[in-house]
Design a protein that fits this description.
Layout (H helix, E strand, L loop, with lengths): L8 E5 L6 E3 L7 E4 L2 E6 L8 E7 L3 E9 L22 H5 L17 E5 L3 E17 L5 E12 L20 E4 L6 H9 L5 H7 L13 E4 L5
Antiparallel strand pairs: 1-2, 1-7, 3-6, 4-5, 6-9, 7-8, 8-9, 10-11
Helix pairs in contact: 2-3
């Protein structure tokens, strides 16, 4: 592609890139958001509790797209005619919100998609929210202009995403432990802190009233001992 030539953003089926919609107008802006799950463990001798990382949530991409067929668009990837029904160029997005009822899977799901803008970055996701507003019509009522608001949720860690500021990790030693069969709170305290008598601290931060009722598969928060 010639240097400086406008690159069109596009949204395609992950498993069949030939099923795609090319953005008639590239988005003016987009928003990427991500949240992490942190649990604060209260420590009686501290003003601020320990933050324990419980896991990350997938990133979300939100954007608004304009589709307009009032006039012809001669871009080779679009080639729309003046007065075309604009829904012809947005139907792919609605298809990405629907399951294929002919699937034989026990729990069919809508297809994954890829939002791509040139070679700069791509975002493999599912569409979790979609709304379309029609704002111009031909004399016979055919919609020729619409805006689409879409929210995508990340489904793959791999890929090329816009650079983000690095985030810092939690305090060293704060983590989550899954109880194994036969373990006791005193034994876990000894493994984690080197002193079995610290089981009372573990019981306190995990709201355990009866340490004898510890069960396999139970999740324990392991936070540093108060100084």
């Amino acid at each position: 592609m010639a240097n400086g030539e406008l690159v069109k953003a596009e949204i395609a089926f992950k498993d069949d890139p030939t099923k795609r919609t090319v953005c008639m107008f590239n988005p003016k802006e987009y928003t990427i958001s991500k949240t992490n799950d942190w649990q604060v463990v209260q420590v009686p001798t501290k003003n601020i509790g320990h933050a324990v990382f419980r896991g990350g949530q997938p990133s979300q991409l939100s954007l608004k797209l304009l589709f307009d067929t009032y006039e012809a668009n001669k871009h080779p990837l679009i080639n729309s005619k003046a007065g075309d029904d604009v829904r012809k160029y947005t139907q792919i997005l609605w298809d990405l919100m629907s399951i294929d009822e002919t699937q034989t899977a026990e729990r069919p799901e809508p297809p994954h998609c890829v939002f791509k803008w040139g070679t700069a970055w791509s975002f493999e996701a599912v569409i979790i929210s979609l709304s379309q507003t029609f704002s111009m019509f031909s004399p016979n009522g055919t919609p020729v202009r619409s805006t689409v608001d879409a929210t995508f949720r990340q489904v793959a860690e791999a890929g090329h995403y816009p650079a983000q500021n690095p985030t810092s990790g939690g305090r060293t030693g704060s983590h989550v432990r899954i109880v194994r069969a036969g373990e006791t709170l005193a034994g876990i305290a000894y493994e984690e802190y080197g002193a079995s008598q610290t089981w009372r601290y573990l019981a306190s931060i995990n709201n355990i009233d009866d340490p004898r009722r510890l069960r396999a598969g139970q999740t324990l928060i392991i936070a540093p001992l108060p100084e």
